Amino acid sequence: MTSLETAKLAVKAICNKKGLNVKLIGIRDISSIADYFVIAAGTSNTHVKALADEVEFRLDNEGIGVSHIEGYRSDSWILMDYIDVVVHVFSDEAREYYDLERLWQDGEEIDISDIQELPAQLLFPSAEK
Predict the structure, then answer these.
(1) Do residues 69 and 78 lie in contact, with contact meaning Cβ atoms separated by under 8 Å?
(2) 126 belongs to a structural domain
(3) Is 107 left (phi over 0), alpha (psi -120 to 50) or beta?
(4) Is 64 a member of any domain?
(5) 77 lies in which domain range?
(6) What pTM does this model have?
(7) Contact in structure between 56 and 68 (CB atoms under 8 Å)
(8) Which residues contact 40 (CB under 8 A, 6 or more apart)?
(9) What is the pLDDT along the chain (129 residues), one digit of tens a residue?
(10) Is 9 part of a structural domain of the chain?
């Protein structure tokens, strides 16, 4: 699986749990940290954790294990490192404060409208059985 496919799978997982303002940013050309950042927000602390749990579950089902997780015990920002893909799940307040989109504005925003517009049952059809 390519890093873009991994990133899009993380986006699907977040959209499946109704994550807010989901962004996929390509940073391969401007940083050696990773190829892609996935950035999203949750409506509450519980929702932030549910989004992170869903990403971990869906990627693990595809044989993609998380290398490292930071902030799971915090209530505002969970970072999930998949080596080539880094997933950031924020509370609204933390997302606004850290403003990663501004910090990584030289990255390429990847169009994910096709994923965001899918009905939930089409994101992971095998899970609905």
Answers:
(1) yes
(2) no
(3) beta
(4) yes
(5) 3-117
(6) 0.89
(7) no
(8) 14, 19, 20, 21, 22, 23, 51, 87, 88, 89, 90
(9) 999 999 999 999 999 999 999 999 999 999 999 999 999 999 999 999 999 999 999 999 999 999 999 999 887 999 999 999 999 999 999 999 999 999 999 999 999 988 876 655 555 555 544
(10) yes
What does the DSSP assignment read for 27-54?
A: -TTT-SS-SEEEEEEESSHHHHHHHHHH
Q: Which two tokens stand for residue 25?
A: 């940013």
Q: What is the CATH number of the domain that holds 78?
A: 3.30.460.10
The alpha-helical segments, DSSP class H, found in the chain are: 3-16, 45-61, 92-98, 100-103, 113-116, 120-123
* DSSP-derived secondary structure letter, 16: H
Contact call for residues 78 and 66 (beta carbons, < 8 A):
no
